[in-house]
Every structure is written in structure tokens, then in C-alpha cells.
Design goal:
Elements: H1 17-36, E1 47-52, H2 58-69, E2 73-77, H3 87-97, E3 100-104, H4 108-117, E4 122-126, H5 132-146, E5 152-157, H6 162-171, E6 176-181, E7 198-201, E8 212-215, H7 224-227, H8 234-239, E9 245-248, H9 260-263, H10 270-288
Parallel strand pairs: 1-2, 1-3, 3-4, 5-6, 5-8, 6-7, 8-9
Length: 294
Amino acid sequence: MIFIPNRDFLEFHSLPIEVIFAVIDRAGKLAAHWHGRTMPQSLLGKRIGIIVDDTGWRNTTAFDLGAKAMGGVCVQTPISFNVRETTVDIAGYLDNWFDLLIIRTKELATLQEVASVADAPVINARTKTNHPCETLGDLAYVQSVRGTLDGLKVVGVAADANIFRSWVEASKIMPIHVTQVYPERWHVTDPDLLNQNFRTSTDIRDLLDADVIVTDSWPSDGTESELLPFQVSASLLDRGRKNVIFLPCPPVARGEEVTSDAMMHRACQSRQAKSFLLHAQNALMEWALTKPVS
């Protein structure tokens, strides 16, 4: 594995592209080990702290399971940030005990503050701003199916929120093209994310040329009349590419961002893709805890 001094994973584009590809390639190998029940004990003796200061369960459960499967000691700590203790103090106490910190919390700024003072690497297990592990897992799955990510066309039918923003982050460094298809008031406009591999659209027909289609939950401030025209259905998937991969992000609300028949469509591979969340996160933990060769 490639080593760089900063082993935090807070935003998708915060790592060099060669590290991302190394992690994705390693995820494929770890998938084979997982299915063969021959997981390497590469985290043996490593102490990993998981902090869930927000809702959700999938990727933190996968982190816990994966760390233990590779020999690590994993502890979930009941911490709430930005309540009484300062983040700096909390980070100092955690540094006494853990070699790696995996944190799900609301504010990306909180993770950045922990990472700025902690010796232990910090992995972003989701914030309200972004969710880079989710995108990393999906890309590892897509590579396992297609064999390459070069030139991948991704269409996100989603608002400017944590799931889709991480795809835009990925477009800054990966050889992929990302298009957001959604009503204009939810388009990504952050100048720090805009780049030549990303564009916005309000034309649902852009899905027809996609290699990968991603959806997310409807925004709470939206109305059915605004959002229903952007619902992904089986009939829409039938009109797309023959080998399109449809990845609705859980939790999925059938009847809103997707129809029930879309979830049953041959293109829908959400369940299979989420298996790679485990493998990609395992590879990420290995990388974060890899020491440089002297």
C-alpha cells in the first residue's frame, strides 16, 4: 500500500488518485478473501475506535465487522461532539487509546478539528456534508463489474446533499464524468467542488447515456410536483444502456425517488454494491494503518 504522511480520509478528493486506486484494487482482493473466509489478519493488535454521533448503521456496522475480521480490537464509544467538552479535549483522550478513529458526526468541521490534533488517522464515516466511504464502496463495486473506471459516466438524480456531493468530490480527481439531474434549486454550486468532470442538468433524458445511475432521498423542502418528474422507474431504466448499473442509496423510499419496479429491475444492483462497502472500508483501514517502508 502507498503511504503518505496524512492518512486521514475526510473528503474523497483529499487523497492522491494513486492511493484511491490502490484502495479500490485492494478492496477487490479483500472481497475474495471475505467470500473464502480467509481474511488476512492485517489489523492484528490495532485498536480502532468507532464513534457514531448521528443516525444510520450500515457503514459503521461494516467498519466494526471488518476490523474484527482482520484481527483488530474495535470499540464503539458513546461520544457526542459539540455539547460539553471541546473537540480538542475529546481528540486528546481518544489518542491515548486508539490507533485509528472512525467517526460519523454531523459537521465536517468537527472531523477536521479532530484530525488536526489527533495522531491517529481519522476516517469520515459520514457527515451531513459528504459521505466519501459510500462513494468509495460503490466505485470499488463498479470496477469489479466493469473492470475499469476510466471514462465512467455517472448520473446522480439527487439533491446537493452528502451522498451526491461525494460523487462530485470524486469527479475532481477520478477519470469519471458526473452529471447531476435535478431541479435547479438543488444543484451543486459550491465553487470548491465545480470542475471540468462535473455538470448539472434538468433533463431526465441524460440518464439514458449513463453507465451508473445514483439516487438519494428526496429533500425535505421539496414537493411531489417538483420531484416526481425525476423519479427513476423501470420503464426509464429500460430505455437506458443495456449494462447500466442502478445504485439507489439506502434508505430507499419506494414511491418517491424510485418506483417499486425500479428496485426489482435487472439494472438495480444496490444490494450487491453495498457488499463492497465492507471491502472498500477494510482496504481503507489497512491503508490508514500501513507504516512506510524504511
